[in-house]
Design goal:
Sulfoxide reductase heme-binding subunit YedZ; iron; transmembrane helix; mainly alpha; oxidoreductase activity, acting on diphenols and related substances as donors; 217 residues; 12 helices; MsrQ-like; Four Helix Bundle (Hemerythrin (Met), subunit A)
Amino acid sequence: MARAYNLNIHISLGPDMQRFFEATSPYLTWAVLASLGVMMTFTALTSDDPRVFHQLVHPSGETSARLLIVLMMATPLAMLLKGWRGPQWLKRNRRYLGVASFGYALLHTIFYLLDKASLTTVVDELPRLYIWTGWIAFIIFVPLALTSMDYFVRKMGTWWKWLQRWTYAAAVLTLVHWAALNDWDGAAPALVHFGPLIALEAYRVWYWYLRPRPVMA
């Protein structure tokens, strides 16, 4: 009989850390997720620097991308790190992370438009790879965020899961959008951030489709 390989890592946390992951209030989660956005908005509204919107474009976009990466890592991490409550907490809070990611993407878009301050400039930049990939990723985000409430989950049924799979397309477009910045100067930081997600998704594909299976006599 062939022996199947099992790379799942079992990790056990102390009772205090387990209770933390089980009891974290959604209000605290929202407060943490929104805190940086509140600070960015406050800076934008109160700063006298004429380039403040330009300075906020990149950090708002990077925050959105990082939250997207974290929420997408939840499932493969839960598969890999069995027994650890961290990935389970991420899975339970994926919708919070997704809405927060959209919120920072919205801030990113607003700061970009305010920085350009001209519809003509915005339209002229559309053919650039790092621009149109960002716009399409944002457009995909909109229905994902709008249908994140329990009401739509119940009403849409299996269609809701089908819609949520578009998150993968948004992630790929976000990776290209980030990497192509400044004649691909953004490639290294984009790959550093997306690298763990790519590795985990590769593990997920291997686990479900490529790993050796036990052969029954």
